[in-house]
Amino acid sequence: MAGKGSAMSMHEVAASFGGLGFGSGRPVIIAGPCSVESEEQILSSAHAVKAAGATALRGGAFKPRTTPGSFQGLGEAGLKLLAEARRQTGLPVVTEVMDAGDLDLVAQYADVLQIGSRNMQNFSLLKQVGWVGKPVMLKRGLSATLAEWLGAVEYIKVGGCSQVILCERGIRTFETYTRNTLDLSIAVAARAQSGCPVIVDPSHAAGRPDLIPALSEAALSAGLDGLMIEVHPRPQEALSDADQQLDFPAFQSVMLRLRLLPVEAIGTVDGCRSEIDRIDDEILALLGRRMLTAKRVGALKQQMGLPTVQPDRERVVLERLSALASPGLGPCEVRAVWEAIMGCARRVQERVV
Ligand code: PEP
Ligand code: MN
Questions:
Q1: Nearest-5° angle of CA 121, CA 15, CA 157?
Q2: Which ligand lies nearest the alpha carbon of 238?
Q3: The predicted structure's pLDDT at residue 1
Q4: What is the predicted pLDDT for the residue at 7?
Q5: Contacts of 313 (CB under 8 A, 6+ apart)
C-alpha cells in the first residue's frame, strides 16, 4: 500500500491515486450523487460532502442503466460540472467511463477513472483504460469471483497503469431484502492479494440508506482503505438510485459515527456534548482495560522479583507518546495526561487504590 512502509514521500503520497489520499492514515471517503443531474445538484453536493469531511467527489456523467429509457447521464456537460465542482471545492473527481470511445473525453476531466461493475470483464476497455496514465477504480463485477476480479486488475496493469483501486460494491445472492450482498471477506482478501487499496461502496451493496452507517463502520473496522457513498441533496427526486442515496444530514451523521466529521461541522452545543460523552465512554472503557493490564504486569513483575516502578520504562512511554502529539493534543498535554495515567497505574500496581 502506498505510504505504508514504503519509501514514498508525503508529497508523493498526497499526489498518488489522483490525490485521493490513500496512505495518509485516514480513510478515503468518496461521496456525491449517483448521477450528475444539474449545476445546483452537483455543486451543492460537492460543498456539503467536503464540509462533512469527504476527500473526493463522485458523480456519474455516463450511466450504466438497466433499461435504455432511463436517464443515461449528462455526458460531457456532466463532466464539465464535475470539473467546476472540483475547482470550487478542491475535491478530486471520480467518475465512470463506460465506453472506450469516451475514454479521452472522460480522462480530460476525471482524476480517477471508474470502471463499473457491468464492465469489470470488458477486457478491451480494461486494457485501454490502463494506457491512459490515470488511476483507475475497478468495481467488482455483479457476480465476479476473487480470481476474476484480480484477473481484471492484470488487464489494467498491462498498459502500464500501476495505480488501481478496488471497490467492493456487493454481489448478487439469493437475498432480496438488500439490493446486493456486501462481501467484506473478499474485500479483505482482495486487499491482501492485490496490494491495491480496497474501498467499499455500501450504497450499491445495501441499496437502502438505513444499512449504510453500519456497513461503513464494518468496512473500516475490517481495515479497508475507504468508502464510496452516494449523497444527493434530495434523494427522493434523484434521476437514478433514488432509493439508496443519503441526504446531507444523513451523510453528516455517518461521518460523525466514523469519527471523520470535522469538529467545525458540529453545529450545536448539544451535538458537541453528545460527541464528548461518546468519547468519554470510550476513554473510560480503555482506561479500565489499561489499568487491569498494569495490574497484571505488576503481578508478573512481583513473581519475577522485579521492582514495580521502573522509571526508565515510564520515560520511554512518555517519549513515544509525546512524539505522536496531534493538533488536538500537544506534547505538553500528552505528558500531563500520561503522567496522571501512569501515576494511577502505579497505585493500582501497589494495590493502594
Ligand atoms: C456507480 O457507482 O455509479 C455504479 C453504477 O455502480 P456499479 O457499477 O457498482 O453498479
Ligand atoms: Mn448509483
A1: 25
A2: 2
A3: 47
A4: 56
A5: none
Q: What is the CA radius of gyration of the chain?
A: 24
Q: How far is the CA of 62 from the centre of ligand 2 (A)?
A: 11
Q: What is the pLDDT of residue 12?
A: 72
Q: How far is CA 93 from the centre of its chain?
A: 15
Q: Three-state SS across 66-131?
A: CCCCCCCCCCHHHHHHHHHHHHHHCCCEEEECCCHHHHHHHHHHCCEEEECHHHCCCHHHHHHHHH
Q: Is 31 helix (H, G, I), strand (E, B) or coil?
A: strand
β-pair type (56-58, 28-32): parallel
CB of residue 60 inside a 6 A radius of ligand 1: yes
Return the best residue to mutate from 99, 119, 121, 139 for the ligand 1 pocket (most ligand atoms within 8 A of CB).
139
What pLDDT does residue 275 have?
96
Inter-CA distances, 144 with 57, 118, 147, 149, 287, Å: 26, 10, 8, 6, 44
How much is the pLDDT for 234? 98
Which segments in the chain show pLDDT lower than 70?
1-8, 10, 352-353
* CA–CA–CA angle 202, 207, 212 (5° rounding): 40
What domains sit in the chain, N to C, each tagged with a CATH number? Answer: 10-265 (3.20.20.70), 269-350 (1.20.59.10)
| Ligand 1 geometric centre to CA of 113 (Å) | 12
Determine the pLDDT at residue 349: 82
Which ligand is nearest the CA of 230, by number?
2
